[in-house]
Amino acid sequence: MSQRPGPEQPEDGGTAAGRRQPDPTRRNARSRAAILMASLQLVGEVGYARLTIEAIAARAGVGKQTIYRWWPSKAAVLLDAFTEGGGEGGPEAAVPDTGDLAADLRAVLRATADEFSDPAFEAPYRALAVAGAQDAELAREFDARLTDVGTELYVARLRSARDAGQIRGDVDLRLAADMLTGPFFQRWLARRGPLDHAFTDALVDAVLAGLRPRD
Amino acid sequence: MSQRPGPEQPEDGGTAAGRRQPDPTRRNARSRAAILMASLQLVGEVGYARLTIEAIAARAGVGKQTIYRWWPSKAAVLLDAFTEGGGEGGPEAAVPDTGDLAADLRAVLRATADEFSDPAFEAPYRALAVAGAQDAELAREFDARLTDVGTELYVARLRSARDAGQIRGDVDLRLAADMLTGPFFQRWLARRGPLDHAFTDALVDAVLAGLRPRD
Amino acid sequence: MSQRPGPEQPEDGGTAAGRRQPDPTRRNARSRAAILMASLQLVGEVGYARLTIEAIAARAGVGKQTIYRWWPSKAAVLLDAFTEGGGEGGPEAAVPDTGDLAADLRAVLRATADEFSDPAFEAPYRALAVAGAQDAELAREFDARLTDVGTELYVARLRSARDAGQIRGDVDLRLAADMLTGPFFQRWLARRGPLDHAFTDALVDAVLAGLRPRD
Amino acid sequence: MSQRPGPEQPEDGGTAAGRRQPDPTRRNARSRAAILMASLQLVGEVGYARLTIEAIAARAGVGKQTIYRWWPSKAAVLLDAFTEGGGEGGPEAAVPDTGDLAADLRAVLRATADEFSDPAFEAPYRALAVAGAQDAELAREFDARLTDVGTELYVARLRSARDAGQIRGDVDLRLAADMLTGPFFQRWLARRGPLDHAFTDALVDAVLAGLRPRD
DNA sequence: GGTTAAGCGAGACGGTACGTCTGGTCTTGTT
DNA sequence: AACAAGACCAGACGTACCGTCTCGCTTAACC
Prior knowledge:
Chain A is mostly helical and 215 residues long. Chain A has two domains: 24-74, Arc Repressor Mutant, subunit A (Orthogonal Bundle); 101-209, Tetracycline Repressor, domain 2 (Orthogonal Bundle), CATH 1.10.357. Helix content of chain A is 63%, strand content 0%. Chain A has nine helices and no strands. Chain A starts with 28 loop residues before the first helix and ends in a 6-residue tail after the last helix. Mean pLDDT of chain A is 88; it is low at 1-18. The structure holds a DNA duplex (31 and 31 nucleotides). Chains A, B, C, D: It comes from Streptomyces lonarensis. Chains A, B, C, D: Residues 1-29 are annotated as: Disordered. Chains A, B, C, D: Keywords: DNA-binding, Transcription, Transcription regulation. Chains A, B, C, D: One of its GO terms (molecular function) is transcription cis-regulatory region binding.
């Protein structure tokens, strides 16, 4: 979100013009940080639906225009807040590779489950998921900066396992990763059950059962 | 949703009173139908975020109070509208049982994918999923009336297959069903890829690979 | 201002339509009174330039929309407030007619000067004069409801004096009235000097000097 | 208005300091002229109420601070703009003295009426009158630089006539001048009627009727 | 002639109020 | 009593300006 100084504006002074884009170099870093911090606090306190730009501005000690100047929506604010504030690239930074695929995946999914049980993480992440479900443009951004990164880590670990002959050569690694994250995501977002280790362990086992060489 | 005239009001005629519950027998069926119809139309036209009670009332030719009297939220209206308007019990009415588990699941998931590609179905369903993600109470209702029903159909079909010895006896049928619906749900809600038959077929195959007896 | 239920809207449901006009019979009298009262208080406290609709609404315990629904501008609110609150038809209700024209005019102008020295009267009246100077539409309304009424009273008294032969038959009564009010108005609005009895008495004498029969 | 580098700052280099007064010798004359020009243009286009400092700055191609540095308010800008741009000392430069008082006054008032019928003159003058009505400090400045000058010219001409025995010796010349300008001002500012020659001629005659010696 | 301190164009900033929109409640008159 | 209609209090929306505050840049004035 925030500002990408891409080459999309053809002339600027032309006829179409429209919204005047601000100069990112003059941006007040202190205000920006205060806004992101306030967003995370407030979404945790009142939830996404009752999160308002006015409240963020007031909490951050900032004019509303300073938010509207730099972000197109409150979801975009949250996305910046989340990616900068704590979620450093998705559920985990990297899937460990001890050689034991099952153990590695169990460990990561357990850690992820724990993370999603932390309200400070859960509230903004859920807010972003909800916003993304309603706005394709935001969803793209959200996926590119959070979800896809996480998926890629699973794919990488699975590829390593495939190279080691621990899983069949014909498996679709992307699909396999989705089989790990999909049930997890659904259970979490729709609150279809507790995100405990029993569930994640069983999920890992069930998925791996379909990936192992037929011997 | 709508109104369950349960025995929760202890005194009613007391001092504090509170919410007067209306008499369902005097309800105007024509208004109710118009409200549900208008909800479905509007959510398809403007999406859930910009769906307003005022617009529903205006479109239905109904007073706002008639909506507030019978439903606690616009999501509840939509839920009634959806379960009565078209989604006759979730994605499908029943999983066929031809004896060929893979073929049956492929058929059902293909049909479901087609259904979720129909905007008239997709818009209100997505709206409900989004509302459910933000409101646990609503999510419960939503699951009870839509998702759980669907899941149960998969579980039933899988049980039949297990009884026929086509899948191992130790598999967790609920988890197996989640492995079918989870990736599907995630791909759909977060728009992580096209909901085509290639995807659903591959998903069915991948899940079944983990369920088959080891022989 | 407020609402004139004239027959100007031809069809309403037609193509032009536009602003939906509210139903004056359903108007909340208590809210209306509170708004007018608050307007008078606030214009006295902070002046017209810093008088805001928001502050009026807050002071009156009323939603902003209730003001915007019934009045087109804060000046219109003030005009209603002023004509109903205290200014009972302009500077004075009637010019006395004791037979002594000079004495009568002196008395009225002295009373008017006193009135314009009362901040509770002065603040809203000045606000209206200022608003009228900037908005011809409002000025028309203001004149019709306040200034013209006052002028007419002078004209009536002067006509009585003319009929009694106390002033020449060829004098333009309207102009004569303007010669009384014009210098007064200018001195007051532009603060060109004190509005004391010395001034008003001198003004009356100077004007009458030009009206008397030449003998 | 603008800046009077008077000796009001006691210490300047003190601790509290406060308002830094800028150095008038380093002032950019081109910017100053552009600001005054833009003010006059804009007040004619949108009126005083919707005249904004930002718009003046933008039209003049000038930073906002350059306006705030040299003028305390938009009214002060307008006052400078007006006194420099065209109204060179009020309605007229001098009242002619042909010996015929009535003819001289009629000529001046006719010219003044014509001037006040010119939008390029009327718009900023009305703006200043309005601003002055709301701000006593500004009104003082306005009077000193425009109105008083005009009044003094009338007084001078009347004094000349009095010395020539054309009007009585006991008349209050200041009041007489106000009887000419007051009705004119009121009619113009409150738009109580057309500012045509018929009006001004009648006004001159009516006033002079009260000034002539009783013979 | 190089340094330095202002004025300057530009515009980001913390604020306030705008006029609009919608939420959810209350009131009125009709069916 | 439910209903259509819509006025009401409340408060967030996104915009427009306010007046202040940096930023670099230009332009004297004084070394």
